[in-house]
């Protein structure tokens, strides 16, 4: 078990990087607490796999250092770092039984037979693998195989962290939630530092207590699922988390009002003030579920035109347009939706202000 | 064009892939085939395309028998799960390829390619090779190639399944608009209820090679004919409880109970299956008539803008949908509220008796 | 129209069918024809039933040749398979060094078989051959034309030199196909190099090694050109393998009947061994699935 510290990490795959573009990781400086469940979330090419390889030791960063519990491990090989990893597809020893697979890491480290038996039994119990213990691992289903891969990490009592690289890719959709629950349970039971890499928000938000959102080689926000949803600190987080993502509208600020294409939207004055002084490119952002949609004119309502309605069963996604601005509103099923003309409202406490893509706080 | 499938059966060895399929497709219409993996969706598409021949049954297009007529001789385009493009040709050439085969004039090809490319927002990528594009862009190219020639029948086999969810969201949105404007019969398969709902049109619900229900998408969603349809057409799966109606009260096997609604009373006493979609359950109550269920949290799954709380209630796992993102610690107790009128009621054979959306 | 489209498939199979008929079925039938008749000349032929088969099966020289052949093939496989795998494991995995290794290894495979015999005749000559004269100058008498052991050694060396590269190429392809994640997982699990070989590389190479084993068995069991050129089956009968003996009967003595019967038996023996190998490997695989 370990606390992982990433110290001013930069990485480039180019031998002589010149500008920012050449860096796969631009500047990573963060600490992950012992026993935490973390997710690294981002689209493909955001640097999350590079980061994972740096943590596991497969890759040496061009700059900076990494330490586990205050021990610098930057120069250590993966096998010396005491980490375990679950890959995208199951990696098993085909010719071995489930028991032999689970016992393998212990056998290699010269653990006594009786201790191995005891530990394997414990882990098989936790992962619901007991009934298959003496079957060939290669004949099992994909979800059982992934559990075995995880089990090989768990059997070791000295393991510092378990890394997951999109481990549910090959799992049937209806089995996924079962495995997610299992992972949660395992985390609770074993109190291990777990780092889960994925591009899927559901996976990340369901698994992790803390989500590290990566975008173009940088960490743009670290927070709980609730924080990422309610107060995205970067427009990318707003867009990437939630479906549909946050609405963003370019604006200018005047007093406690944001001006969007001639219309005015009230915002919290202190933020407006800060944004005015910061003087970058400004945007307002609001989650579709907080956009108010009205059939009649209301106070502070902006007149708009409904251009599309998508039925999601439990809710409807309404796209409305005013001027050149399109706004999506998420409306619960049982409310009637105006046809054509409508009025939109933006509750000030839910309307965020962004300056050069960063949240104004 | 109208396409008619009559008594189609498909057997491979001893396995029944399709059983007694009867379908009719009208032009300028959209159909979504919804079903889990191995429901027979792809088998059906392949037969419609003429890539496979049914074991028995006939396919007629505008009254002409086309069973087993090769796909090359018919006006069909198909998009697959995998991103299939010609690797050595540029995006422009890829999109233009079906038109070149038709022998169109250069200028005409150019105009059509540009139109299809702009529809799918890949105009700026036309000089590149497929390998230089992201998965989403590659699939856009494949879709553009399918759209560029005016086919009678456009088949899409889970085209978005291999894309990131954000890309899926964007493309789904755009495809819906593109399909509405088409004159062709568009048939689209998916495993995801949300996708089926968003594409609208008509839905064909399949399970294990059979058609379970056909109808207007929203209507089928609201009034699933059987428990099986309700199961396939709900994400997360609909919650079922078994129970009995007696003297004005509903009592589930788990002991959970509530006052029966008038419609339930009309059914008369007996045993029934009750279904409730996760969005009809809530963790706060705004109505005195609501019944209350208690359980412990097994997992909270956060899906975009909703939280699905899986909780254990007397050995059964029930899923409740909570708007927004909220963490619920595993193992904590939750109270869940439900209005009795929101229950679906099915008889023992699994046929729908009462739907909350239909009086 | 649709019936026609379906039946058209047969036309695509026809060319292969014709080629196979001319290259395999017709010659084989001719051999069967010879094996059951005694032929004196045109028009003078008698049906003799299984007489030739009986004669050939009772021929002690054939028994000797068969044992010689089996020993030879067995030894060749015992050396080539492990050696090939060992070379594949130790050679560079990527970059120009890897390509260079592959090219050098492939060289023996490009030389015509009869030329190989000639090369080795010269190479092992006690007077002018590099190897022959070196060994003799070291005080060991070496002459593959006079000494049976020397003849065998030379043939084995030649065979191993010639064909081990094929095993290497196949094993190398098998190794390259193992995803990197397996090695990472093994490292993390603290596996020793031997454990990595035993539990990852060997199981993952099983498919290609089966093919290598079958190919090498069949080829070595049919060896002809090399001993024919190098030793001519001698000294004495020391290197008279099945194929050499067969040619002696057929061409040397012109006993076409027995030769045909012999050919068929030879053919059946190879089929039998291939089947046995295949079954054995299937059994291993099946055992792993259950």
Task: Characterize this entry briefly.
The complex is a heterotrimer of chains A (361), B (359) and C (290). Chain A is built from 9 helices and 22 strands.
Task: Provide an overview of this structure.
- The complex is a heterotrimer of chains A (361), B (359) and C (290).
- Chain A has nine helices and 22 strands.
- Chain A has 361 residues and is α+β, with helices and mostly antiparallel strands.
- Chain A has two domains: 4-239, Rossmann fold; 245-359, OB fold (Dihydrolipoamide Acetyltransferase, E2P).
- In chain A, a hairpin with a 2-residue loop joins strand 9 (210-215) and strand 10.
- Chain B is α+β, with helices and mostly antiparallel strands.
- Chain B folds into two domains: 3-232, P-loop containing nucleotide triphosphate hydrolases (Rossmann fold); 239-354, OB fold (Dihydrolipoamide Acetyltransferase, E2P) (Beta Barrel), CATH 2.40.50.140.
- Helices cover 25% and strands 35% of the residues of chain B.
- Chain B has nine helices and 21 strands.
- In chain B, a hairpin with a 2-residue loop joins strand 9 (202-207) and strand 10.
- Chain C has a single domain (59-289), classed as MetI-like fold (Orthogonal Bundle), CATH 1.10.3720.10.
- Chain C contains 13 helices and two strands; from the N terminus they run H-H-E-E-H-H-H-H-H-H-H-H-H-H-H.
- Chain C has helices spanning 2-7, 9-35, 51-58, 60-90, 96-110, 113-124, 130-137, 148-176, 180-188, 193-221, 225-230, 242-252, 256-289, and strands at 37-41, 44-47.
- Chain C has a two-stranded antiparallel ribbon.
- In chain C, strand 1 (37-41) and strand 2 form a beta hairpin.
- The N and C termini of chain C lie far apart (48 Å).
- The model of chain C has no long low-confidence stretch (mean pLDDT 82).
- Chains in contact: A-B, A-C, B-C.
- The B-C interface holds B 53, 67-70 and C 1-2, 5-6.
User: Nearest-angstrom radius of gyration of chain C?
Assistant: 24 Å
Count of strand segments of chain A: 22
Write the CATH architecture name of the largest domain in chain A.
Answer: 3-Layer(aba) Sandwich
Order of helices and strands of chain C: HHEEHHHHHHHHHHH
The chain pair forming the largest interface, with residue counts per chain, is: A-B, 43 and 42 residues
Distance between the termini of chain C: 48 Å
Choose one word for the global shape of chain A. elongated
Task: Spell out the CATH superfamily of the largest domain in chain A.
Answer: P-loop containing nucleotide triphosphate hydrolases
CATH superfamily of chain C, please? Answer: MetI-like
Overall geometric form of chain C: globular
